[in-house]
Design brief:
By secondary structure, the chain is an all-alpha fold. The protein contains ten helices and no strands.
């Protein structure tokens, strides 16, 4: 996934990746049993990767003057010429202390970028430079979904797999109304009590709606 001069293409890329993850999810449900478990961890990790990549490319596209999906040219004060400048500015807004420790550079390498995975971080950066698509960002930010809060905890479990990360997964399960899970993979495949979708399908739907609104 790359930065683009038109946010409609970014939205299409997000939708395409989500479609692939949904297909894998459907196949996993068909397998059932222990054979499905490695695929569940893949789904969690890849959905988290998709969110981080799309947030990053949205930020770069927005601050370098892309057009929105509706065709409006995005302006900001100041304006930026490349992803290194955007990364430095974002770090200065989101972590002023960290930015200062790096010597307040005009550009950052990808290694030193602030890892963005939460809507509030995007909203804060876009608002700080008065980007003209701020209304769309705020509308997306106002969309109430737990995926951005809960998914990093699930990914962290698959990275570390210990009693503490398992306990946190059970807390997430309670937060989405799923109880009595016996293993972490079961959480994402459990159907919600009030909707005919699993937790993972619900999160994919939320991510798709969020980025659709974000890129308008």
């Amino acid at each position: 996934m790359r930065a683009t001069r038109h946010l409609g293409r970014l939205n299409s890329a997000v939708a395409g990746r989500l479609s692939r993850l949904r297909q894998i999810h459907t196949a996993v449900l068909g397998l059932g049993g222990p054979r499905s478990l490695p695929d569940v961890s893949y789904l969690a990790i890849e959905l988290d990767n998709l969110i981080m990549a799309a947030m990053r490319q949205f930020m770069i596209s927005t601050l370098t003057g892309a057009r929105t999906a509706s065709g409006q040219k995005i302006t900001s004060i100041p304006s930026f010429s490349d992803e290194g400048e955007v990364a430095a500015y974002a770090l200065s807004v989101l972590s002023p202390v960290g930015y200062g420790k790096l010597g307040s550079p005009q550009r950052l390498s990808r290694r030193d970028e602030f890892k963005i995975r939460e809507p509030r971080s995007v909203e804060k950066v876009v608002a700080s430079c008065a980007a003209s698509n701020l209304i769309s960002v705020q509308a997306a930010y106002a969309y109430n979904t737990g995926v951005f809060t809960y998914l990093p905890t699930i990914r962290n479990f698959y990275a570390h797999r210990n009693d503490d990360t398992w306990r946190k997964v059970k807390n997430v399960a309670g937060g989405v109304g799923v109880y009595g899970i016996k293993y972490p993979d079961q959480l994402l495949l459990t159907q919600l009590s009030n909707r005919p979708v699993t937790v993972f399908e619900d999160w994919c739907d939320d991510v798709e709606l969020f980025f659709y609104q974000l890129t308008l």
